[in-house]
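For practice. Any example?
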Amino acid sequence: MVYHVIIALNSVGKRRVGQIISALEEKGFEFVGVRKKITLPSVVESPSMKQLVLQYQLNELDAMVFYRGMFSESVLKKKLAHFFRNHVELSFENEGIINLHELWDICRETFVNDRKLPIMFVVPTNGENGFDSSFFADDFELDAHNYFNPRTAIPLGE
């Protein structure tokens, strides 16, 4: 099973990820790779269908309960928009199935305190044909996601 730790980059496009890599390697995870997406501040992106589907997927995770308790709706909406445009995605491989909330807690503990904690999610994938693939698929096909009805999609906070 491949696990992705996706972390929002800070305002200068950086995030210290070495501590997270070390913490997960100590727990028996094999570091597979890193992907980084940075969108220039001058580029304005409107929420796309892909972003709404990803937001729907992330809303199902326990980490969103934590962030909803930490931020107001409007602040969380802005932070998630920044997260989709500017993030680093770390990929790890492990033979067993791990509780995602426990894995998120391990990553969370690497930050000094909750005030410094970035928007961060841990998601699993099986990988395509045994190869590591990004959680943010480039070839997004709406029909491939029969669990999501785009007609009922409502952006967070609206």
Summary: Confidence is low (pLDDT under 50) at residues 139-151. The radius of gyration is 15 Å. The first strand starts at residue 2 and ends at 8.
